[in-house]
Amino acid sequence: MYCKNCGNELKENASICVDCGVSIGKGNKFCKFCGNEVNEDSKFCISCGNELNKPYIPKIKDCTNRKIYCRNCANEMDCESSICTKCGVKRGGGNSYCYACGKETDEKADICVHCGVELKNRFSMVNSKGTKSKLMAVILCILFGTMGIHRFYVGDNTEGFILLALTLGGIVTCGITTIISGIWVIVDLIFIIIDKITDENGEPLQW
Questions:
Q1: Which residues of the chain have pLDDT under 50?
Q2: Is residue 202 part of a domain?
Q3: Where is the DZANK-type domain (predicted)?
Q4: Within a 13 Å sphere around the CA of 42, how many CA atoms are in the beta-carbon half?
Q5: Residue-number span of the structural domain to which 91 is assigned
Q6: Whether residue 113 is found in the same domain as residue 163
């Protein structure tokens, strides 16, 4: 780990940099992962490819010794890098090369014919989209939200049954649980719009 203020390499568990005296994590002139100078407004380090705002986690042996390749240009990457420093594509983006051996692959291939690894979704940083419609989820939430239909639609059956039980429970609770259900639906509607609710595979809903 390196000081973000001066680029000095830091000792493990250090709380301040002995060179500049700045607390660990303060500053924005150097990359904490590789120690190279970065632009103060940069999101990624162009030297090591790491996302500058993500927490620093000491490298484990498995990751340090493992080679991965950019699927867009076949450039060798650090397995912790978020982007390829050669072409700028996010890790996992592209479908022209194998991430494990770096050899060329067919764009539609599920398996690399050179080394046998599965190609889809491994080491990917690219945002994928699910198959469930966000518009449909919004409509179901507005029209039938208190019955939990929108939750059933996205594959969250547990939440769906809870909403349905709260609504029906209003019969014996003088409407108290129905009110709770209504508030829940409003929150769910907001969560659907801001992508906090995903499909059963954890993929974002798409319009």
A1: 60-62, 64, 125-128
A2: no
A3: 3-49
A4: 21
A5: 59-125
A6: no
